[in-house]
Amino acid sequence: MRLHVGCAMWAHKAWQGRLLAHPLPTQERLRHYAGWCDAVEGNTTFYATPTRDTVATWVQQTGTDFRFVAKLPKVVTHERRLSEVTEPMRVFLDAIAPLGPRAHALWVQLPGSFGPDDVPTLARFLRRLPATYRAAVEVRHPAFFTETRATRLLETVLGEADAEWVSFDTTAFFAAPPTSDAERDAWTKKPRMPLRTHALTDRPIVRYLGRDDADRTVEGWQHWVDITVDWLREGRSPTMFVHTPDNVDAPVLARRFHDEVRARVPDLAPLPEPIPLEPTTLF
């Protein structure tokens, strides 16, 4: 039983000198982020597959309990839509191999046009994944949320592959009009996803988008605190990624979510202590 929490990235200009030491060399940024959170969304791998040596530095900067949810490359999910992807998947899997057990899941984020008629393609793709990896699939076609037949079809395919359905909760964000530049920008880019709270596996993954106002973000995640507590008591080990439009306080909020859950599940392991912004001195 474990709750992992994290953010959409491990480096952010707004964190420099406030949450993370500054300046930091590139090869130290993840190490300092890992003092705040014990998981991260691997969004960068969507745009470019890193070298194996680069991934090895990620391992060097994190402890054995740290987890990456590695996003499959855009060419695999959006350009080729999971078909004829043997070579890009070979390159990607070879690159992330150093992660070993730190690779919590392969994140298969599918475009909104990938609908129920495409599920057989997804099924074939999942069957070909190496057994050493677990998949977490994020869909955005509305039929999967509104049509019972489509929901059951997807759940069946995911269940057969022991793959999770990633919940992307944007309901709190879209509950009221935007009030900041970052919120106005996100308003035009983020999908209005129906709320889904059902876990298929013992390792559910939630992506939660709050507001730039911390109080509204916390208010909007209270149902997830209840659900996460229930999951933990059922023996599941969930992962919660906290987003806000500006992400200025995302690591702080992720830790706060963990604290709220741990207050109700005292046996939950604590998060690591953040690395001090400045070296401690004796005098």
From TrEMBL:
Coiled coil: none annotated. Gene3D superfamilies: Protein of unknown function UPF0759. Signal peptide: none annotated. It comes from the Bacteria. PANTHER family: UNCHARACTERIZED PROTEIN YECE, UPF0759 PROTEIN YECE. This is DUF72 domain-containing protein. It comes from Micromonospora craniellae.
